[in-house]
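Subject: two folds for Thursday's group meeting

Dear M.,

Sorry for the delay on this. The cluster queue was jammed most of the week, so I only got both jobs back this morning. I'm pasting them in the order they finished. Each block is the input sequence followed by the predicted structure tokens. Could you check whether the formatting survives your parser before we put anything on slides? The first protein is the one we discussed after the seminar.
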Amino acid sequence: MLKLFSKKNEEADTAVTTEAATSSEAAEETEAKKFNTKKIAIICGSVAGALLVVFVGFGIFFQSHFFFRSTVNGVSSSAASASAIKGRLEDAAKGYELAIVDDKGKKQVLSSEDLGLQIDISEKKINALLEEQNGFLWVYRLFVPAKYMDDAIVSCDTKTLERTVKKLDCVTDKNPKLTENAKVSYQDGTFVVTKEVYGTEVEPELLMKKVKKAALSLQKSLDLKKDKCYKQPKYTEDSKEVKELVKVLNGYVDTKITYQVGSATESVPKETIGSWLSADDQMQPAFDAEKMKEFVSTMSKKYDTYGQPKQLATQYGTTVTVPGGNYGWRIDKDGEVAQLQEDIKAGKDVNRDFVYQYTAASHDGNDYGNSYVEINRTAQHVYLVINGSCVMDTPCVTGNPNNGHVTPCGAFRITYCERNAILRGPNYRTPVAYWMPFNGDIGLHDATWQKSFGGQRYREGYGSHGCVNLPLSAAGTIFSYVQAGFPVLMYDLGGTETVDSLTQKQADDCKNAINAIGSVTTESGAAISAARGAYDGLTDSGKALVDNYQVLVDAEASYANIWAQVAAQQAEAEAQNQANVVIALIDQIGTPVTADSKAKVDAAQNAYNALSDAAKAKVTNKATLDAAVAALNAL
């Protein structure tokens, strides 16, 4: 127990001793830190004081001396007094000349007189510059040198300087090397930069400033190239704008543009896109709109169908060529160029169709597709075809070609559809229930004023002003199927001419009237006249249907012949009667002829002379009369 207690006491004493030692060391360390801090503060204060002394000392110094690195009219005035700089300026001005050095090292030396230089150096003027100087800014001027220019010390006569500069060789050179900006061009699949060109063009105003500045600074020479007196390129190969432009254009040219035209595809070659791209004056991407239009024009020639003839398998089993009209695909050139530019700027691959001014139903096969209005102008008949099947057909009446209102053939599109429209013209205002224009003011519409449709009515005074007249129900049916853009195909097809029902009936009535004439007698006049009236009242198409017209012609000839014979017989009898009267008068003369016979001879002669030739020929005793006249004359 004693040992254990003793051991514990020893351990305790050791711990106390150790703790005391540690506390002593900490105190010593704290004292050392306080001493070091005080020491640093003293040092810093001493340095700050020394710096302040230096700062103030130089500040006072530079109240009467020019700053370090300063210049007065281009002459070094670093730490110089007014008198010192006066001497330096006088040395620089003595016999002053300015050498203009071109890019080939050729010099043109200009004297003070050439420059209109006026030098007036005085210590007073130099002191005036010092008085404006704040000496305590000397530290700032170590980094930003002070450059004093005083026109009161050195100045130029502007007019003299202008005359001199205008005569410099670099100004009068008529064929200077042209300065060119760096250029960006497409080569072998990528855009590259062509280095800028430093030329020998001068800008008179800039050169004037450079020469004046050099003269006022008493500069000994002016290197046109080094001092950038020549026109400088705005953009170089290292310009940020040029580098960014190349990056953008190479992104543009990698854009893939593919047209999907029906089942066909058309890709724009990378080289073509590259030919469209360039830079503007501000090094921004630019598009060659003319080259783009040329490309679009090429595509138009390949894919446009607008205004081109169409092949149509008609309802008659015959394929015809429908003339071009306003139907078909037509690329919008300006719109397509604008869209191409947007696609390229977006930088994303594009698969699309062209931008169109006019569209059609199909890119493959016939552009009008398999739904359309078919009009046979020759047959005056309209067919409505939907999805390849004829769902309705009707006779029609088109424009009258005899008065300049012909309805033109062609492939057209319905412009719009309107219910209960009013059709207006120079001499008419007509309401219609269904109006479907397809070629300007020409359209499909109902025409309730027409008594019949089809045939050749359009040629015979019943034709329209150019529109396609339809029965009301037919117009309504077509209206229910079509919409704006729906194709209308009109054509002529020989051999399909038809007549309308009214004309056919009138022709049939005429034929019956001719057949009713029967055998021609003197009593046939009324029947022949009725048949002739019926025929003359027909239209040309109706007359063409009268296949027994020759019977009428023959009947008229026979009837005329019969009455000619009757008239001849009546004339013969009348002539004989007249002749008989004269024969009796001649017989009354008697023989022999004496002076008393004169009254009878004259009566017979006068009666004979009054006869017609036919009656005279029937006077059988004319010789007796002639003998009596001769005997009477002999008395």
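Second protein, same layout:
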Amino acid sequence: MTRTYKNPVQRGFFPDPSVVRVGDDYYMVNSTFQYFPAIAISHSKDMVHWELIGHAITDPDELDLSDIRDSHGIWAPDISYSNGRFIIMATLRLNADGKRDNNVMRRQVVVLSDRPEGPYSKPSWLEVDSIDPSHFVDDDGKHYMVISPGINLVPISDDCTRVTGDLIPVWPGTGERCPEGPHILRHGDYYYAILAEGGTGYGHGINVGRSKNLFGPYEASPYNPLMRQLDPNAPIQRTGHGKLIEDANGDWWVYYLMGRPNRGIEVANGKAPKPGEIRVPGAYTTVGRETGLDPVRWLDDGWFVINEGKGPSNEQTAPDLPEVVYPKWQRDDFDSDTLDVHWQFVRRPAPGNYSLTERPGHMRIWTQDGQLFEIRAKNTLLRREEELSYTAVTKLSFDPTRDGEQAGLTCYYSTATYARFSLCFEGKRKLQLVINRNHGEELIAEVNQVKDGPIWLKVEVDRLTRRFLYSYDGEDWSEAGVLKDCIYLCDEGVPDDPKRHTGTLVGIYANNGGCGSRIPADFDFFEFQGRDINI
């Protein structure tokens, strides 16, 4: 029986995919930017259903993201398998002011393990100031790091931890803007140079060139762009940054990043966007860039096409592999003494200021300095929004008595843009719904008569509308406030923000609002129920 699947196959904030097959198992890595632990690692048996199994860097002392700006940090990882080891490479994008690391803006990190989920080795650093590394081993056994802009080769040691030669430019791309996400693939008589071009927004695409010599010259494919969304009203946009993979049956596929806009794209005169074209308002990628999958077919002339040149699939025939479906992670009762792999801290966590054991069955977060609009904020704990519509709820025990103390739910994009729904103290015990839509907090709604004891907090998301509710028993709910047209909680929502690459996450937080206190906020559980909707 033929099965089908819908894109994306990795839903929520899973951008810049790289996949490797080892036997009958498939492993994916994705960018995590300023979030920690770093570099998400997922596993699949059927190429469509994925389970998150770990992270490549889990010790914050080995990767200090405490001062990393929004949408900087870990970019575009690549996973490969060689000589019995998994090799993960990625870019550490530092702050543009160059105040650390000798004014270098970008460094490449490499970690190794004999187990896909880790633990991985301590990071090794390859001092190449560019982005988007990937690993290639030639027929003669020599190892290279492939890196942008365009396709460049950097000779590296056999263990992939040292640069051993100078950078060698081999193909600049087709001439479109932002030639990045580079991969080299050896197939038949040719080396194929695969690039993302056109920028990561609307008009993103995949182009390819080939050569019989690794070092070129390369000719561009007559079928370029191999992947680009040309329908401005389609439910899948921003498609690019792809990596090809051969499945266990010998069939070929490409994993690529994509975005699901909350609204249809309105383009001048109804024409499709050109690479780098500024779109008019109307498309908001709230959940962030995700991972899609489409088939690849090799042609008689030695080139290949993706999805027969039709662009990204909404629905597609699944790989001919035994289906293995993993349960969705929907609820955490905080009963374990270790944090579930789905949780992400914003930047560096602060050990000693959160605990799963001080009050068993609860996630305890101690208030401390640093509010959500500050980079220094610690222990904001989030999970990915997997759908454009969902409900999230938590139960909180918190006893604020000083002005500024706050704990609760947050729908968080960055220090510049978020919504927070918190139990707080401002002259008295209150609930506040506060938004930050562009580097400034605004009080939207307030509940002044809040009972002592535990309180349930809920957010109901329907596309761009977010409704916040509270309860004293988890059964009877009262509305605190509604946010409509939350276009600031997405990549496109604040045009003057220099880098917005992550999408919105939802979770829990606590801080002291600047009053200097340290009191516990105890979260009994966190539950997420997504709803797959037609766009």
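Two things I noticed about the second structure. Residues 264-270, 276-281 have pLDDT under 50 and may be disordered. The first strand starts at residue 4 and ends at 6.

Cheers,
T.
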